[in-house]
Design goal:
Oligomer: homodimer
Radius of gyration of chain A: 16 Å
Largest interface: A-B, 46 and 47 residues
Structural class of chain A: alpha/beta
Largest sheet of chain A: 6 strands, mixed
């Protein structure tokens, strides 16, 4: 097991409804040293890919993206989940289904911050059905930017989102890939 | 002018409705090197205050809090804006008015991650009327934890939130304090 898988086993909890709770170290309380290890790992994978921007989606992707961006020395742009009065002007927009928030929502990114010629690394904490990721990919494509790759901390491989995105020819690297998970049987990694 | 004030002048934009847009470097696109300077500055101010946890609120506080936490070598806990199915169990809860999102919302923090004996540093990008900050303070007080201090990147001093929180005896340090701001006259720092 690698360091992410070990941490999931030691500190993660499986909840009702196919929920993997990692809120003690990843998406509510955040272990910043752990994020640093994650950032270093993503840098190992993508350091030669010409990444000039990291994009993610609020909220739990932001910390991971910012720490990872230190290794690449590039800016982060995070897609926002709703239009606020602080964003005006032209935005790229995509609809995402949410598993954790129930129902669809729009994500937006200002056209100021993503352009043709950008080579972006997409970072997120989870990949399950891939709804948030598909919406981020749409934003990048609408901007005529290129996707250098996707870096995911935890992929629920059995939910098919990763498989689908890889079938588009996009490189997706997940630090932990879960093949199966249940309260009784625990977690099986790929 | 310090580095935050300089950056606001060079890259910030004043919008309609008393909005200071800093989404090119702070809260949509994020300049991670700039966040590092901010983190170092907060560490200079609060390194001797026994901080064992940094707390903030999603979304735009998270990147700043995570980068700052590297200097303190402590975890971050970010309050969430709505109850998701990924959080269960007991939470502390407080209501916050939102200027940018219009209307009130609940913020929550799991009781697992804040306790009596914690000395927390509260970090956020903006302080205006102080609604988010007051809600965070309530969470910390409900947990019987102590507030070592508050670190803010940009305070709109003329909106009174900082003055109110300081009147409670809480140390609030803002890296840029705006005394007045208008589209025609620009920005005046305190």
């Amino acid at each position: 097991m690698n360091f992410v898988e070990k941490r999931i086993i030691s500190d993660g909890k499986i909840g009702e409804g196919d929920v993997l709770k990692v809120d003690g170290f990843l998406n509510h309380q955040v272990d910043v040293n752990f994020l640093n290890e994650i950032g270093r790992e993503f840098y190992k994978i993508y350091s030669d890919c010409g990444v000039n921007k990291i994009i993610t989606i609020e909220a739990s992707g932001i910390g991971i993206a910012c720490i990872t961006a230190q290794f690449f020395n590039v800016p982060v742009v995070f897609a926002k989940k709703a239009k606020t009065v602080n964003i005006y002007g032209d935005v790229y927009k995509a609809k995402a289904e949410s598993y954790t928030h129930k129902g669809a929502y729009d994500i937006i990114m200002s056209k100021e911050f993503i352009h043709k010629g950008d080579r972006v690394l997409i970072i997120d904490d989870f990949l399950a059905k891939g709804n948030a990721l598909k919406a981020l990919i749409k934003l990048v494509e609408d901007a005529n930017a290129e996707i250098a790759g996707v870096g995911i901390v935890i992929e629920k491989a059995y939910q098919g989102g990763g498989e689908y995105v890889r079938s588009l020819g996009i490189k997706v690297e997940s630090l932990a890939r879960i093949a199966a998970m249940s309260i009784n049987e625990g977690i099986v990694f790929c």
